[in-house]
Protein: Golgi apparatus protein 1
Amino acid sequence: MAACRRVQRLLLLMFICGWIGSAHGGKPDAENPADNLERGKNAAGDGKASALDGASSVRRSGGWKLAEEAACREDVSRICPKHSWNNNLAVLECLQDRKDETEIAADCNHLLWNYKLNLTTDPKFESVAVEVCKTTISGLKECAGVDRGKGYLVSCLVEHRTNISEYQCSQYITKMTSIVFSDYRLICGFMDQCKDDINKLHCGSVNTGEKDIHSQGEVIACLEKGLVSEAEEQPGQYTIKEDCKKAIMRVAELSSDDFHLDRHLYFACREDRERFCENTPAGEGKVYKCLFNHKFEESMSDKCKDALSTRQKLIAQDYKVSYSLAKACKPDLRKYRCNMDTSMPRAREAKLSYLLLCLEAAVHRGQTVSGECQGEMLDYRRMLMEDYSLSPEIVLHCRGEIDTHCSGLHHKGRTLHCLMRVSRDKGILEGHCQKALQTLIQETDPGADYRIDRALNEACESVIQTACKHIRNGDPMILSCLMEHLYTDKMVEDCEHRLLELQYFISRDWKLDPILYKKCQNDAARICHTHGWNETSEFMPPGAVFSCLYRHAYRTEMQGRRGSSETSDLSRDCKTEVQRILHQRALDVKLDPELQQRCMTDLGKWCSEKTEAGQELECLQDHLDDLVPLCREVVGNLTELESEDIQIEALLIRACEPVIQSYCHEVADNQIDTGDLMECLVANKHQKEMNEKCAVGVTHFQLIQMKDFRFSYKFKMACKEDVLKLCPNIKKKVDVVICLSTTVRNDTLQEGREQRVSMKCRKQLRVEELEMSEDIRLEPDLYESCGQDIKQHCQNVVFGNAQVIECLKEKKKQLTQQCHQKVFKLQENEMMDPELDFQLMRVCKQMIRRFCSESDAKNMLQCLKQNKNSELMDPKCKQMITKRQITQNTDYRLNPVLRKACKADIPKFCQGILNNAKDDNELEGQVISCLKLKYADQIPRLCAEEVAAQEQTGQVEECLKINLLKISHEGCKKEVLNILKESKADIFVDPVLHTACALDIKHQCAAIPPGRGRQMSCLMEALQDKRVRLQPECKKRLQDRIDMWSYAAKVAPAEGFSDLAGQVFTSPAKNYILSMLAMCVILLFLMGLFCGRITKRVTQELKDR
Structure:
């Protein structure tokens, strides 16, 4: 057996030089002395072979020749060319390599068998090598000293073949190798090790002469298929003995040099070799690789495809079956100790997948792997991606899915992508199948070079040529570039599908993105405690590493202070890559493993019809309150992250590109924008550059923010401490805003009280309030209460610009009670703080800049009212101001100025109305009517004609003014006096006087701004100036007003003690009056005391009498 093992070693080494023999084997060389040494005498009848003749100078014509034997003479003359008849090896090769349809006689078969057997067993075999390779042996020290007669010499020569320059020596070894591999029985030990397995698998006969001797390659092919079936655990497979398995793999390894040595493959692919690889020289596995590259060509024969697949599957089980790969990567395997793991079974260590993972790990660590080895690895990684059947784990675990969903898609990686699509779209793969796919993606590592994935390469070729042509071919950035152009005009549908299918698996292991791994491997090891590229940990699985990285990339300021920056912060390069991956994941929820896993049920329940890009995440956000807790948590975290960096929403950023370029480019350039970009987009939502997609996206994000105050990053950071202190247990943003706003208002009204809400929170709170006023949907309570009214009265009104709110205000009398109350409350807040009136601020934006730039925000409407009739006032703004004035007249609470001025009188006269009114019910002018009730009885008697007039031109008020002296009701007198005071302050409030003097105002007072009685003073000066001639009607009305004002100076007596006390306390001479009253009281006290003493003394004198 020792000698047999040495022969096996010899054969292992002999295969290396087979390529030279293939190049010259069919051309007999007249000067080749090996042929003379191959001569031997053989009796065809008894089958006994004689020894080889060792003489080296015998002429061809004088020795024994196969062509002259009676058993083979006819076959040789019929099949082999005449010039080869004198060369026994040429005749042997001719008869062995004949076409399948060509038959030879059985006696000739038997003669050839014995001749080949004698060649491999003759004791003079080594002496032939000594003579043929004499010069080479003397030049090689390693071979010159080996023991002779044991077969070591030839083994040594083959090991040092690269140093052999003698052509005849190489030819001799090559020819002997081809002879041995023509029949499995000529391989030492093979027959003994595999005899039982051959019979069990019915792979052929082991008895000489019972089967065509040239079909014996089929026996090895049959065993190889049995070995592959066992690895794939196919139904009914037979378990081959371990010794036979080793022998089968040994034969495959020995035949890896020259495809002629794999007799089954040679005959199956002979014509295909001529078709596809005619110019490819034999040797070093080149023909194998050429045929592998053309395996999926339509013209490739099925027999050849099957034979090639079997050999590829053997390579997958043992990389040494590939001559070129084993040779190219041998130094690197030794350098990085890829075959030195003593704890690993030898069978696993030899697998192609283990070799790829080990060397890929070295590459990812930045270590050097030879270019030749990397080239071979690239070829075999592509091979594994093209044909799923080369991965036994996928064949075993995904058999059902392939039959159900992917039948007939075997070519060019289509079946693998089909399985990826099933896993991505439907999520119905078994755990083992998904794991097998994930393992294959890691082995092939297509993220490092997109060309490994042939299906992706072919689908995306046009996109790469247009959108990514600036990137070097094969660069890992190609995939990132394709993701950046996903859902753009440059992307084609087939590429989009293939890309998302691959990214689905790459996203589940951070190591499969080579750029991310390169930039973040040190951070991951330091912060997330990860291991090497090809190592895994149950404590930190691959999918959890990226979550760890992005949590540290988007640490808030408070988190940053709690953690040490030296140990917890990511490097700048790693942060950039984490942000890039987040941008990619935002394109499709399936690219976020945690999100898809936790939200699978909710996606099916709420979002089954949302199939467009980005719609699924929006759908989950819309149904946030309905999601299961685990899904709600991950969607909430992602939304919170988007609020900090809205650029993660790649689709939204693309849609908003025009607005960003025009108004927000400065904040967009920040690496992490901390909410500034979204705030800028909201502020410019109504610019002309804003398109519909961008506006819808921005509004949707605003709506999502209302669900939780944490979704507004700047608001959260500014008010987090205030919310915890003042508004605990409140989650919804709108409720938090109301809570904080109420606190601010109460603190402001209570003079001298310190503000409990911090300054930075108050500033951001103001921003949030202004943003919420733009769209009724941002006021969830109002929107919900008025939902039915909106459908009924404002169905065709577009959301945004507060248009729906304005519509509800105009239809206020027709609204349901619930909606009416909410609208009134909104109007009350807007009147108190006009900045919250979005329509007013939008329509009057320019007028505010012109007239009210220095006015306080709370007095904005008052300022606009004062400048309402200016010639420079915009008509649209003037109309809006009029609407607001009409609104104020409906309820005193909508007029803050009136409410403040009459806060004492309203409870005095109208307490009954206030007692019956609710806070959120509109009084519909009842209080104002109550105030007018004091002089209502006088109106019919004195001004009946004017009351009957339909148009409110101020005639009623004018009648009251004229009859002021006749009014007996003091309350009515007081109201008329107030009207007179108002008209004195602003002529526009006195419609009769304004109409009468309009022409004079234009001529005499055009340069005088209205308000504060300025124009009225101008007219009175003109009246007193004898040089100025006023219109008669104006002159008459002015004179009447002067008389009325002189009477109005006399204040009517108070109606009661409370009224009197009110007048005293509101008087500017309050202190004087009170001091005089105090003096009177003291004086009365002294007088009483004095009078009492006198009275008492008189009484005493009377008693004395």
The mean pLDDT is 76. The first helix runs from residue 2 to 14. DSSP finds 66 helices and no strands in the chain.
